[in-house]
Write a structure and sequence with these properties.
The protein has one domain. The protein is built from 2 helices and 12 strands; from the N terminus they run αβββββββββββαβ. β3 and β4 form a beta hairpin.
Length: about 220
Amino acid sequence: MKTFCSFSVVLILVAFLFVGCSSKDDNNPAGSNNNNGNSSGTGFASMKAGSWAEYLLSDGSHQKLEYIGVDNYKGTDCYVLEFDMTSNGESTYTQMWLDKSSNKAILYVIKMAGIVTKMDIPQTQDIPSSSGNVPASSVKLGNETYTTPTGKKIDAIAYKSTTAAGETELWISTQVPFGSVKTLLNGKSQSELYDFGTSGAVRNISKQEAENAQSFGIPQ
């Protein structure tokens, strides 16, 4: 059950992160950087391999999002994302592999207490495309300046929208890998950017570990 909960959290994070990954404008958090061999464009095709962003979550834990780059799984070239969660001194590592040609997730891997498990996801699994944009129902609140706890100043744009969960405020920036700066739900902070960089991401689940991991399934 704990593994399935982690999977659900990653799906939510991926859906959230793609908000704003669109054309080369104020809503494109990837910017125009080129990665290792990828042509310039939008979404992960223009994000530099090794980029990362670290967030402080409302429960006091830290979540680090890393773009590892392009790798191949069972003959399919994939964008590889890693999500590192640290809470109470313990770390959990998860990876999402997205088919480079379709942006659909095809593999999910989790590493907890040194044990690695994986789930092959059917190609029909619908994961938000990196060509998405800020929802049309969102209202632009204006430009904001955000300073990370490490002293980096960020120019961001704040948006507000109403969902089933309540009123959501989203800050995004082209200066930050993955685009996310700050999120609030009903006025309460859910995540805030702690630090970021365009190099130095560390891969904690190797390709060999991912390929040889024990398989698990999603509970019905």
